[in-house]
Design a protein that fits this description.
Oligomer: single chain
Radius of gyration: 18 Å
Shape: globular
Largest sheet: 5 strands, parallel
Distance between the termini: 43 Å
Bound molecules: flavin mononucleotide
CATH superfamily of the largest domain: Aldolase class I
Number of strands: 8
Strand order of the largest sheet: 1-2-3-5-6
CATH class of the largest domain: Alpha Beta
CATH architecture of the largest domain: Alpha-Beta Barrel
Helix content: 25-40%
Number of helices: 9
Order of helices and strands: EHEHEEHEHEHHEEHHH
Length: about 220
């Protein structure tokens, strides 16, 4: 199957063209209104992304715990959950709330195969759950990134322009954590080891099954 996800734009712009080319199209949405707009545009499914996730964000952010069940109760297309997921229990929580799949951003940035500099991975391991900043709270685009001296200053700035990424390569591959902003979500507080992607996926799926088995046992005992 040929598959594409689109995000950060109007789903009406590309959905029909991509589908006409034979692609299955999932659109990333941060709210119920944008989910319904994407459905109206004809997408095959949604990536429902909570505001605790890393990267470009709707300034009116809604946590996965609220957004995911809300959207799942109003649409009948497949939903992939994103924002705050890093392991089996968080995957099981997403499925409990209506998702059929999960997407991890911050966890994969920290993976052994991830091409970003080791300083960024170490900063993820060192970060607490409170160590992200939300930039452009009253402007656009909202951005969630790791807390550093520079990003802490930027957090109080009315508007942070896209020129913040001008020296992104120095951060991504040179490891200068103040050269740009290191996009990351609150889930960094739960990431404490650099692991290969295959290990992350195997452990996540095993943890998912262990979690739902434990929950089924609780129900059986009641
Ligand atoms: C470094 C980084 C870059 C990202 N770039 C994109 C992007 O280009 N397009 C997009 O739709 N989402 C992007 N995201 C968001 C992720 O795809 C994912 O939905 C998000 O990180 C999920 O939240 P989590 O960080 O809690 O796992 C990015 C996230 C990170 C951390």
């Amino acid at each position: 199957m040929k598959f594409v996800t689109t995000s950060a734009g109007d789903p009406r712009q590309y959905t029909a063209k991509l589908k006409a080319a034979g692609l299955t199209v999932f659109h990333v949405v941060p709210s119920l209104a944008t989910a319904l707009k994407a459905i109206a545009a004809g997408v095959d499914g949604l990536v429902v992304e909570g505001g605790e996730g890393g990267g470009f964000k709707n300034p009116l952010d809604v946590a996965t715990m609220v957004l995911l069940p809300l959207v799942c109760s109003k649409v009948d297309v497949p939903v992939i959950a994103a924002g705050g997921i890093c392991d089996g229990p968080s995957m099981a929580a997403a499925f409990a709330l209506g998702a059929e799949g999960v997407q991890m951003g911050s966890r994969m940035v920290s993976a052994a195969e991830s091409p970003v500099h080791g300083n960024w991975k170490q900063a993820i391991l060192d970060a607490a759950e409170t160590d992200t900043v939300f930039l452009n709270r009253y402007s656009r685009p909202g951005l969630r990134a790791l807390r550093t001296a520079r990003s802490t200053t930027l957090e109080r700035q009315e508007h942070v322009g896209m020129d913040i990424f001008a020296r992104a390569k120095e951060l991504y591959f040179g490891g200068d954590m103040e050269a740009a902003i290191a996009l990351a979500g609150q889930v960094v507080g739960r990431i404490d080891a650099i692991k290969p992607v295959a290990t992350i996926i195997t452990e996540t799926v095993a943890g998912f099954h262990a979690t739902i088995a434990r929950m089924a046992a609780i129900e059986g005992a009641a």
